[in-house]
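Worked example (supplementary).
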Amino acid sequence: MAASGCRGVRSILWKYGSCGKNFCVSRSKTVPQLPVRQICVSSSLWKKNLAAAGPQKFTQEFIDKQVEEFEVGKRHLANMMGEDPETFTQEDIDRSIAYLFPSGLFEKRARPVMKHPDEIFPKQTAIQWDAEGRPFHFLFYTGRQSYYSLLHDVYEKILAIERHQDKMRNKGLFTSETKQILLTGSRWLLKEEIEEYLVENISDHDYVRLIQLMEKLLSMPYCSLEEEFILKFRKQLEAQSSKHEIPALQYDPQGVAFSVADGRRKTAKASITLRDSGSGNITINGRNYLHCFPLLQDREQLMFPLHFVGMLGRFDIEGSVEGSGHSAQAGALRLAISRALLSFVSEGEVERIRQAGLLTADPRIRERKKPGQEGARKKFTWKKR
Amino acid sequence: MNLHKLSSRLCPTVTQKFRHLQIQSRGQQLEAVGVETESTEQNPLSVFRTSEQDPTYHSERHTGQYYTLPAAHIQKLFPHGLPPRFQLQIKTFNEGCVMVRPPALELISYLKKADYSKPPLRYILYGDVGTGKTMCLSHALHYCYTQGWLIVHISDAHLWVKNCKELLPSSSRPSRFDQPIQASQWLKNFKITNERFLSKIKTTQQYVWTKRERTEKGQPLGELVDQGVNRMKSSSDVVGAVLRELRLQAGGATEGEGAFKLAVAVDGLNALWGKTSLKKEDRTMCEPEELTLIHNVRKMMKNNWSGGAILTALSQTGSLFKPQSAYLPSELLGEEGFDNMEPFVPVSVSNYNEKEFESCYLYYLDRNWLQHSHSRSEEGKKELIFLSNKNPSILERLCAFL
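After joint prediction of all chains, the assembly is encoded as:
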């Protein structure tokens, strides 16, 4: 009974241990064998405890099985889509799933997805101690073994570089101008990313200490020896100006330059032709823009791109717009004008326009009305009783 | 002094700057020279203003320039005639300045050349919303006034077909409706405008208003008008009588003293043939013919008299049941109106061109109306051009808060 009790407890410990939490658990072996009256306990009691412990965590076998199923499923999917199973990449998988299971859900994360189990199941630590309960890692009892072991590693590397420096000095080959690591265009990993890497929670103070240590490593002249190690902890920043498609500049029979562009805002679609003719006429849907947009605000929206570039009276605009209301139509036209202007303007100006926010398509659309509420956000009158 | 000799010696094409450079030593001299240069040479300030106050002498030379309406004329001629925003502008700027524009000049030239022994010519000013039709009409009316014509001016016919509080069944005819308030108001304004004619014109027949009131034949028109002003009940019929008298006697060259030319000016002509928003007592819609005032004005529009001119302007802004994009005579007048008014001389009014916009802008600058510092720069001017598309009324509203 006691033995079965031990086994039961051990199974609980097993499950606890497979959570990422390392708390000191006393070994059941040292419990003295006291005469204990056997209480008949049904397995439902164990089950209740298990549920209180936390959600079902995944064992390594489980994950391996998932990986196998994923690979097999990938081959099946490739066959279904009529493509080569050997060269079936993740993008192809995403494309096929989107085709086979079309979903109109707004939240992209709610849509059906088929990814490698490593990306789906959260990373979890393996069991930190052996069958007798002795922890594997020497820093287990610090509570944060991965973090401190990382700090130890970095310090080891610092010491190694110092030894290398001394060797070079002894040989007389010491130079300060050594190959430096290129750090522009990248940043240190954030605290959340470090946590993900270490599969451990660390505090802000710990994070700052780690970064300080890395900076110390970087400050040494021969740090290029550890370049690979350091770059593991740096993340490349995205390109400053994401490439915008500049519409091609065309010439009509009279030699006047013009460009065509589209714009959208909240169900309104606009398409315009920007002509470099030297007058400031604007015709929309065949009518003068003064008739289309009697409101000053809409005309100011139209004026903004041209005014920003300083070419107000230079262009002729001929456009068509449909859908939505007057404000959305003005916004769609503004986007279209900014896009068309890109082909008349220099590179630096393109960057300026992008930073002014003229090229960003406004993603806001009408929010859906939910059942049980009056509108998207408004609730019914709340009655206390 | 030597300042006068200086200004007469130097040729007027020398720029102001040059003169200022020459006489930079004494500040007093600078001020004096400034005053001199304004009168002697065509510097930018006078590009938008002209000293020619009489519309008779306005010509193409003056297009785009502002001339000042004398205050006395404004009071007499336009007690109700000018657009409300323009009246506010007069009050703010302390002067009433009107721009000389091609449509008005065209109209005035036609008036000058017309033969007044024949039936009157009908002129219709048409154009987009806010392009200046009423202002051109006022300009032409000012010309008529300075020439000594008798003015019959209906400032906005739309006011007679909507928002009428009192609609009385007519005393004289059973199927018509009277509008006493509007009629008496109009008679008062008519009196102010045409004071000097009221004693000269005599009635040609007897008018019986009620059992006790009547106007005999041969009475001066002033009495008729007073009758209408005092007795509200019969004021609409009085209006009809006045118009009839004027029709009969206009251009009558029989007596030298009584000869006068008649100018009938109607703004918002499309109201006469459109729909009304007035309801009769049994909740059916009123037709325009059933209103006495409208009926009488329609009779004036016919060219079966002689010795005058009919100047009209269409207006979409006050019109009922017409889409905003309609501005052509055929659209706004409708079939019936068009047939009635045909043949007419159409005069189109459009947005400002470059020169006119320039002078309007300079005028506002001169009056310190554009307070925003950015509006004085070239950039600001381009912005104004874009936002208003050189439409006079929109430009005016835009500058109002700058």
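Two points are worth noting when inspecting this output. The radius of gyration of chain B is 25 Å. Chain B touches chain A at residues 324-325, 379, 382-383, 385-389, 391, 394, 398 (CB under 8 Å).
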